[in-house]
Amino acid sequence: MADNDVTGRQSGRTQRWAARLAIVAAVAAVVLPLVVAGLKSLLLAALALAGFAVSAAGLWWALSRRGPVRVLAVALAVAAQAAVIGLFVSVGLFWLVIVVLLLWAVMCFEGWAALTEGGGRTAPAEHRSPPPERPFLIMNPRSGGGKVGRFALKEKAEALGARVALLDPAHPRDVAALARDALADGADLLGVAGGDGTQALVAAVAADHGVPFMVISAGTRNHFALDLGLDRTDPATCLDALTDGVELRVDLGRVAGRTFVNNVSFGAYAEVVQSPAYRDDKLHTVLRMLPDVLTHHLGSRLTVRGAGVGIDGPQAVLVSNNPYSTNDPAGLGHRERLDTGLLGVLGIKVDNAVQAAELLRGRRSSGLTFATAREIVVDADTPEVEVGVDGEALRFPTPVHCVIRPQALRVRVPRHRPGVPRAHARLDWRRLRDLALGRG
């Protein structure tokens, strides 16, 4: 108890000093330009913002147009930034820009540190359970550039008593049927070393039969493993769950009756990846198709509906199994929790250069929609719509229903694991003031 009190006091002092440093950096970032350049600094700041807006508009034209217009738009975006840099250099204040940016960085990082409680990792509820007696693992030797072989996952798993089915790329197999057969043969745990698409198919079987599921981070991106707090650099550590593990209860998403563990995408991305040319020439396929997709000349015109959610004509929609962190751009890559019982919804609607420039406002932009719901219906003006399900290109009849299955999956993870990075807290200046004054 005494140790906890000491730790709590130390944490409180650290938060107070971080809050004070954040406030000092914020004040310095505002006052320093006024001291150095006077009121002229306000004019320079306005011109810099105008330059960013012009660049954003230029990028929109570059993505939504072809031929000479695209070339001119890229030139405009580059020229706007060059003009802003040249302006500050010409008046001898480019050093001030660098200093102010550093001060803003200190403000953000110290502010986030002060407002983040409980450390930098989340701690989801863990449930004790006995080790599995007959675990069955499915491994894809090609996944992640050959991680199964590179980390000797098959041999290590078998040494721990697991049965392993090694997929043969030359002879594709139905992994869901393989998992069901293993359960019929007495398996009491299912696991996958492979991509998130394969994870989802086997996770659905595990959830339907109420048996634990194990994730081995042997895929390319390993988004599901990241959000479970697993080690993505060494997938062999995931095997520790077989002998010293705990269970988490996490949600699963379903789209048109198919399970997904990460997200489902509609619109621009889903349209482009459906192209036969995409696999062989991604960049040129994107540049060729985006103008028609962004201007609604190609693909479906979407509508999104849910409790408190309504989006008409978005170019892109992402429906996720639990919402992604959105308090900072870096947070968009992960979900802090997988047990909220809610779908995350991100919609993007940009119809002109002005709206593209407005995206600089982030969450306050009218072109961005962030929401949560238990059920989402995506409709279109076509009988079918292209959908990306955990990275796999599919087509579904419209309307497409997305629902959440709260805590449907028992996931067995190692007791000792890196954990899920905690999302940055929103910079609440009133809260920072109270912390700095010792009131928090």
Task: Please describe what this structure looks like.
There is one protein chain. The chain has 440 residues and is an alpha+beta fold. The chain contains 13 helices and 18 strands. It has helices at residues 2-37, 40-64, 67-90, 94-115, 147-150, 153-159, 175-184, 196-209, 223-227, 268-273, 282-294, 353-358, 429-436, and strands at 121-122, 135-139, 163-166, 189-193, 213-216, 245-255, 258-260, 263-267, 302-306, 309-312, 316-321, 343-348, 368-373, 375-380, 384-389, 392-397, 400-414, 420-421. The strands form 4 sheets. It has a 6-stranded antiparallel β-sheet with strand order 7-6-17-14-9-10, covered by helices on one side. The chain has a 6-stranded antiparallel β-sheet with strand order 13-12-11-8-15-16. It is globular, with a radius of gyration of 25 Å. The chain starts with a helix and ends with a helix. The model is unreliable at 1-8 (pLDDT under 50).
